[in-house]
Amino acid sequence: MSATEKIAFGSIVVGLIVLALKALAWWLTGSVALLSDALESTVNVATAVAALIAIRVAAKPADRDHPYGHHKAEFFSAVLEGVMIIVAALLILREAWHGFQNPRMLDAPLEGLLVNGLASVLNGLWCWVLITRGRRLRSPALVADGRHLLSDVISSVGVVAGVTLAVVTGWAVLDPALAALVALNILWSGWKVMASSLSGLMDEAVSEDTLADIRATISDAAAGAIEAHDLRTRHAGPRTFIDFHLVVDGQTTVDAAHDICDRIEQALKRKLPGALITIHVEPEHKAKHSGVVVI
Question: Which residue numbers delimit the Cation efflux protein cytoplasmic domain (predicted)?
Fold first, then answer.
């Protein structure tokens, strides 16, 4: 099992523990806001399972039917997670509406808040693991899961504060009002996760900073060439795809041109491990006098 798969499996275990704690907090208090927190945790578990499946599919090597690999499977998982977040938010809004119609004071609020707080601490720690390791492993599924958990942690803090305020003031309506605010926050989180994942499915180019690094790396490593133009990039999970045309002097031998390409590929892979690079070599008269100028 790879490091990415181990983390994804850990998310399922943590999600189940947090779900049990939040469900206990709701059972102790009868709070609609705490119920909304528990409902979001059911989504966490479902999406953690989807993320693990997607990561395993994405890790499969290229084959005849998928010559570019299976890396985009993680983006599908992240889109599914976004959809499920939105569904959870709608369920919470429904519960909040029922709470507005029949507001009630809470049972055992202190015990429930302590249990919910413990679940939030656990979620916060795991959220940090998912985002930091997901970025290091370049896994969209792990990062999306971590961002979702971050929104869960933030909303949980708000829930605890709001429920405490409802108990102190005796305003029972604060409980469903808070649940509605949690739902709106979750909706925004779901939209951001979906938007980020759809960009990968649409073959969006790498960021401007990464593109600048790629240009500089090509320029530094392409001694013996004239220019590189028509540079294109896209990303799919942990993979970055780079292709461009490399212009060399018309008298350059095939072996010499190949050596230049090898140097560029090695330099790019040091900068972006796992990058897949395609270079089309062209003679001098094909130069466009634009793109990357070789130093």
Answer: 207-284
84 and 174 inside one domain:
yes
Are the C-beta atoms of 74 and 141 separated by less than 8 Å? yes
109 with 22, same domain: the answer is: yes
Reading the block at residue 17, the tokens are: 């523990």
Count Cβ atoms within 10 A of the Cβ of residue 77 and give its class: 0-12 exposed, 13-18 middle, 19 or more buried: buried
| Cα–Cα distance, 140 to 193 (Å, whole number) | 10
Exposed/middle/buried for 40, CB within 10 Å: 0-12, 13-18, 19+?
A: buried
Q: Judge whether residue 215 has pLDDT over 70.
A: yes
Does residue 155 sit in the same domain as residue 22?
Answer: yes
pTM of the model: 0.56
Task: Verify that 44 and 172 share a domain, yes or no.
Answer: yes
Q: What share of residues in the chain are helix, strand, coil (percent, to 5)?
A: 70, 10, 20
Please check whether residues 48 and 119 belong to one and the same domain: yes
